[in-house]
Design goal:
The protein is 5% helix and 58% strand. It is built from one helix and eleven strands. The longest helix has 8 residues.
Length: 171
C-alpha cells in the first residue's frame, strides 16, 4: 500500500459562495489535509480522505468568518470537522476523471461526486521526494447539509463551488 499526504504549505481547500446574487466571495479552510491510499499506480483503487477544521474558515473578513463559525452556518462548536472519503475513482488516460464519496458536514453525510485531475509524478527538486498534485473541484448545495438554513439564497447562494489543490508526497 502506498500512502500520500499533502504538504500544507502547497495545498488549499477553497470555496466560492454567491453574495446578494451579484458577486462571488472566496474563502478557504486554513487547516485542511488529504491522505490518499492506493495499491495501484493508476490510482483506480485509491481512497481519498480530505478533512478540514471548520473553525479555520477564512474569507479575509474576520466578522464574516465569526458569523460563518456560528450556529447560523457551520456551528463549529458542535460540528468541528468536515470530511470527504471517496468510494469510487474514475480516472482516464489524460489523468482526469471523477471522485465519488461521502461528504460529512454539519452532521449530515451525503454522497457527492467531484471532478478530479491528477498531475504527472515528478521529483521535487527541494526534497528529492516523488510528488503528485490532486485537484478536486465541483459544487455542493449548502441546503443539502443544513448549513445556513435561516439565510435566504438571495443573500448567500445555495450552490457552493469547491476546489482543493493538494500537493502530496509519500508519507
Amino acid at each position: 500500500m502506498s500512502t500520500w499526504k499533502n504538504d500544507p504549505a502547497h495545498s488549499r481547500l477553497g470555496f466560492v459562495a454567491r453574495h446578494l446574487a451579484i458577486t462571488d466571495i472566496y474563502g478557504r479552510f486554513a487547516d485542511a489535509s488529504l491522505t490518499v491510499e492506493t495499491t495501484k499506480p493508476d490510482l483506480t483503487d485509491a481512497v481519498f480522505t480530505l478533512t478540514a477544521q471548520t473553525a479555520d474558515i477564512d474569507t479575509r473578513v474576520p466578522p464574516r468568518d465569526n458569523h460563518l463559525r456560528s450556529a447560523d452556518f457551520f456551528g463549529v462548536a458542535q460540528f468541528p470537522e468536515l470530511r470527504f472519503t471517496s468510494s469510487v475513482v474514475h480516472l482516464g488516460p489524460d489523468r482526469t476523471g471523477t471522485l465519488t464519496g461521502t461528504l460529512s458536514l454539519h452532521g449530515v453525510s451525503k454522497e457527492v461526486t467531484f471532478n478530479l485531475c491528477v498531475s504527472e509524478q515528478v521529483t521535487n527538486p527541494m526534497n528529492q521526494k516523488p510528488t503528485l498534485s490532486f485537484q478536486v473541484s465541483g459544487a455542493v448545495k449548502r441546503s443539502d447539509f443544513g448549513v445556513g438554513p435561516g439565510i435566504p439564497v438571495s443573500i448567500v447562494g445555495d450552490v457552493i463551488r469547491v476546489v482543493a489543490d493538494m500537493e502530496c508526497a509519500p508519507a
